[in-house]
Design goal:
Blueprint lengths: L13 E7 L2 H8 L2 H18 L2 H35 L12 E7 L2 H25 L5 H35 L3 H9 L7 H5 L1 E2 L6 E2 L8
Antiparallel strand pairs: 1-2, 3-4
Helix pairs in contact: 1-4, 2-3, 2-5, 2-6, 3-4, 3-5, 4-5
């Protein structure tokens, strides 16, 4: 007999359109952003539906602390470089030749925080690039700084994915695997519309937004 169609899970979302200009921040969108989105949704919504309340509170606190601590460090570095920029009388902001615009369906508070983390890295890179283009930072200083901060955001994303996997395993060990699958199937495919509608750029092998989400 054919399976009965599963009901669609109706959840609250904010559709947030963001523009990421720097190459280093864009690379985070291409390297596992959708996996982090799904992990955060699993932590904030899916696993809470079927998991242990106390355990999931602890998981959410750990994830929130990870994102919050890195956000504060990014803001502090941004403020430091902004002071350096002001001290050198630099007022111009670089123009980026290929900004990327995507729409994220914000379906959990921590997804909003992680999206803001990538935006903060993009702002940091804008100041860093201004200092580099005007000769305040050397090529090595700019490359090392960009790599360091991009890697730290990427590492935080991987930690979030690992945390969600452990929480999922705990739920499965309690016999909740089937329930988890049923809930996920109804929600997880709709998280980032731009990711689903992007097409591959044959010239550089990267993904570019569809016309509906590209900058005009």
């Amino acid at each position: 007999m054919p399976q009965a169609a599963r009901s669609t899970f109706s959840r609250p979302v904010f559709d947030q359109t963001i523009t990421i200009r720097s190459n280093h921040a864009q690379r985070l969108l291409d390297r596992g952003f959708l996996l982090v989105v799904r992990a955060l949704y699993g932590i904030d919504v899916v696993l809470r539906i079927i998991g242990d309340e106390e355990e999931m509170d602890q998981v959410e606190e750990i994830v929130g602390s990870l994102i919050g601590a890195l956000a504060e460090e990014l803001k502090a570095e941004h403020a430091r470089l902004a002071q350096l920029r002001e001290a050198n009388g630099i007022g111009a902001t670089p123009r980026y030749t290929n900004p990327k615009r995507i729409t994220v369906h914000i379906s959990s508070p921590q997804l909003a925080q992680y999206t803001a983390l990538i935006e903060e890295l993009d702002r940091l890179m804008t100041v860093m690039d201004a200092l580099w283009l005007t000769g305040v930072l050397t090529n090595k200083q700019r490359a090392d700084g960009a790599y360091q901060w991009r890697t730290r955001v990427l590492r935080t994303g991987r930690e979030i994915i690992d945390i969600e996997r452990r929480a999922r395993k705990s739920a499965e060990n309690r016999g909740k695997g089937q329930e988890l699958s049923e809930v996920e199937d109804s929600v997880v495919a709709q998280e980032v519309s731009a990711q689903d509608s992007e097409s591959e750029d044959p010239e550089n092998g990267t993904q570019t937004p569809s016309p509906a989400t590209d900058e005009g």
